[in-house]
């Protein structure tokens, strides 16, 4: 499925701050849909449907959960980003009101998977855990994921699938050159967490540290398509991958360098198009 191009935004220079609801809205309206082919491929591979009880770790603004629910799955999402979970609630529980309210088998909570322990029905444990937030882009970006997976798998039945996602090889990801901007700026001042190319065994290493057994993998084309340059800047900044660079220098400098890196990907009609490949790993709970 080709990502839809998104509506026009003001020119670069008005990117919302990292801790505000505007950043989460940019993620939900611009960037999150770029991973739709990944979600679809995983759900098809695992035959997600009415018998699926899915726990989404770092569920963000809930698009992947919404797609699973449309296939008949019962979905639960948890994330530490309040603004993104608020948007997920607007999508999946528009009439619920109150944190964590359940409707039609859907549940959304702030926090970590461990916070779901008391609310999980031991008679109906999860049989699918997803962690779709791509790893393998900055050093240590999986550190918080390992304990989160540990807490999640304790609430799932044995043999259940756990899905991890990551960036593909840099030579297959046009966005890699744009992400290197963050690395150059943080390295220049020797501060922050810099960008690094994805490594072949990133996902397998996370699975091993979480005590999971690999059971297949796949690659999916996930092109990043934007209606214009401003939308591309806002979408990319909503990922949080440039936050360390902003702290190391300033937002105007980072925006300027990102815009320069995007210029080779601007098409004659003003849209921005960057082919990418993402990888997913299916592991099992022993």
From TrEMBL:
This is SAM-dependent methyltransferase. One of its GO terms (biological process) is methylation. Residues 1-22 are annotated as: Disordered. Coiled coil: none annotated. It comes from the Bacteria. Residues 1-10 have a biased composition (Basic residues). Transmembrane segments: none annotated. GO terms for molecular function: methyltransferase activity. Keywords: Methyltransferase, Transferase. The keyword Transferase applies. The keyword Chloroplast does not apply. It comes from Streptomyces pyxinae.
